[in-house]
Amino acid sequence: MLKSLAFIINPVSGVHRNAAKLEREIHASGKGRRYVIYTTRGHGDAGHFARLALEKGFDVVVAVGGDGTVNEVASALVGTEGCMGIIPRGSGNGFARALGLPLRMRDALQVAFDGEIVRADVGQAGHRYFCAVCGIGFDAAISEKFEFARVRGPAAYTALVLREWLRFQPQQCTLRFDGRETSEKRLFLATFANTNQFGNGAIIAPQARFDDGYLDLCLAGNVSRIHQLVVAHRLFRGTLDRDPDFHYHRVKQAEVRMPGPIRFHVDGEPDSIDADHLPIRVIPGALRVVIPREAARSAAQQNGREEFSRIIPT
To answer: What's the CATH class of domain 128-282?
Structure first.
């Protein structure tokens, strides 16, 4: 049983905004245990509270929000003995879904209190960490637009993707990874996946795992407008790796070169670097996370590599 938990709540995250109800659930579930609740007010607060919770000796820091909140908390915990729990409250919940976490609030709370701890890999793009995916090209453009969208959720996201398909202009790009180099005159996207999906069941890298010590690079050149409709279908069916226009590589480190500034996203959060190159790497086992007991055992069986998938005693 996990002894003490610090909950970091983003009250305006995604499509779930009833923070008062959530706090009542935490109080009901946390009777007899040590816990504290922090509420964020703006960007950077989640990371600040995560570091504060570590200083105060809490066993688990629970990110209550969407992928952005999860990213902030995880970034503060990378390389420490701190452990992250997640109560998914966003519009995509990509990392939470990949970990096998329940989306129902009460069930996710139970996992936070009584789940198993495993080690997960973390990606790094420049100075930014990512738990699920980092992307350049089309998905970066989508993230930039979605950041300012007034309406969230699957329907709004799908509508945005369809609009951007008509506007997106591919760029020239060179990628170097694990001793290889490839150039694309018209890059549609280059996505580095630590987990299999963006969120909402949009599976960009069907074979990607959070505990195998690799990033799955999904690379696509110029994809025709007509074929993009086929791509969308395969994305949500989890069969994009069968598409002839999409190529996959397992990488430990890479470098993206293209005319700057380079716009990219980490876990759906847009960012940019005022340079013509962006280094990307995986950091194996850098983050301790709480997941359902059955998901922990399944991960251990599938991976077969004790250094990444063993269950850590609590």
So the answer is: mainly beta
